[in-house]
């Protein structure tokens, strides 16, 4: 048997073994709901150690054919987001309301959602995206629709059947990152300021160089707002989302910094490094997560605590920004 074939068989066996472990965890959780916290901890540990395996060919075909069945990743996301039951009747009623007040904005944005990803267009239709986003605007008028919701909702539809995707999107948006998606994207602006503070802390040399080259943290508004989906490939972004749902969406900021550190040598040699931020290199989730874990271990508790709450609580960074550089000792 050829060497390449043996390697391929070994990889398949490893993925099947990982998939089996997740299925066993999910089964145990369903049979022992009284130990929900312990079950979640085991699931998070597994994600940290092994990651989630990519969708199988069968799962991809089922999604393309509109089969109303959750993939392994979909099932894990629902558990991590606390989605126990979904109401088809409620969703249908919301859809029956038709176009929302934000319909024109939604219609404009859905045509640009992952437009360069051919597999996305095979799995998610514009009609599905339109239904979900208009339903949410009816169901949650205080948030309604802002640009950026389209790619977040699109990613959920890429992984989950429509009704499950809607409830995951709605729960995630309203409970985990509502300040990212309010009318002023307040949480995103806070996130870019936190990114600025953390970048200065973890790599002062790179930070100082960028400051001499027209750097401003708002350059990262789009990567932060899109939760990484602005940078392909989508399948790699989903691995980052596994991490976010397991440990918190605030890690979006850390992973964005990790992408910068991966570009470090190029940035330090470039005369206009900030021009490179318009299109970040393709996502390499494994490397990004490894660097991110290293950054997290370095951060002072005070700064990390601010990072954790910023997607849902308004925080005042005025006492930190522009002050003496952060060190572990001072915090």
From TrEMBL:
GO molecular function list: GTPase activator activity
Q: Which Pfam families match?
A: RabGAP-TBC
Where in the cell? Cytoplasm, Cytoskeleton
GO CC term (a single one): cytoskeleton
Q: Which UniProt keywords apply?
A: Cell cycle, Cytoplasm, Cytoskeleton
Origin superkingdom: Eukaryota
Taxonomic lineage of the native organism: Eukaryota, Amoebozoa, Evosea, Eumycetozoa, Dictyostelia
Hydrolase as a keyword of this entry, yes or no, is no
Describe the location of the Rab-GAP TBC domain by residue ranges: 67-248
Indicate the family of this protein. Answer: Belongs to the BUB2 family.
Put simply, this protein is called RabGAP/TBC domain-containing protein
User: Chief localization class?
Assistant: cytoplasm
């Amino acid at each position: 048997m050829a060497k390449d074939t043996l390697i391929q068989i070994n990889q398949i066996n490893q993925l099947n073994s990982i998939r089996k472990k997740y299925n066993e965890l999910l089964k145990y959780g369903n049979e022992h709901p009284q130990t929900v916290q312990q079950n979640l901890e085991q699931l998070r540990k597994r994600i940290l150690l092994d990651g989630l395996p990519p969708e199988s060919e069968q799962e991809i075909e089922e999604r393309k054919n509109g089969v109303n069945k959750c993939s392994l990743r979909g099932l894990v996301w629902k558990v991590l987001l606390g989605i126990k039951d979904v109401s088809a009747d409620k969703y249908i009623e919301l859809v029956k309301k038709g176009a929302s007040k934000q319909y024109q904005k939604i219609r404009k944005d859905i045509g640009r959602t992952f437009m360069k990803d051919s597999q996305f267009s095979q799995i998610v239709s514009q009609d599905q995206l339109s239904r979900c986003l208009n339903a949410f605007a009816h169901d949650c008028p205080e948030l309604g629709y802002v640009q950026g919701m389209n790619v977040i909702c699109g990613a959920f539809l890429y992984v989950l059947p429509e009704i499950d995707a809607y409830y995951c999107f709605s729960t995630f948006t309203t409970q985990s990152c509502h300040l990212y998606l309010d009318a002023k994207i307040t949480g995103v602006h806070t996130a870019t300021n936190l990114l600025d503070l953390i970048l200065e802390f973890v790599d002062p040399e790179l930070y100082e160089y960028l400051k001499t080259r027209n750097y401003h943290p708002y350059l990262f508004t789009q990567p932060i707002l899109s939760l990484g989906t602005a940078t392909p490939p989508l399948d790699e972004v989903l691995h980052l989302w596994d991490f976010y749902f397991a440990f918190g969406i605030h890690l979006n900021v850390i992973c964005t910094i990790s992408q910068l550190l991966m570009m470090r040598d190029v940035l330090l040699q470039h005369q206009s490094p900030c021009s490179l931020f318009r299109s970040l290199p393709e996502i390499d989730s494994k490397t990004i997560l490894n660097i991110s874990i290293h950054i997290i271990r370095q951060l002072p508790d005070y700064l990390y605590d601010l990072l954790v709450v910023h997607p849902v609580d308004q925080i005042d960074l005025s006492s930190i920004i522009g002050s003496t550089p952060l060190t572990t000792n001072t915090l």
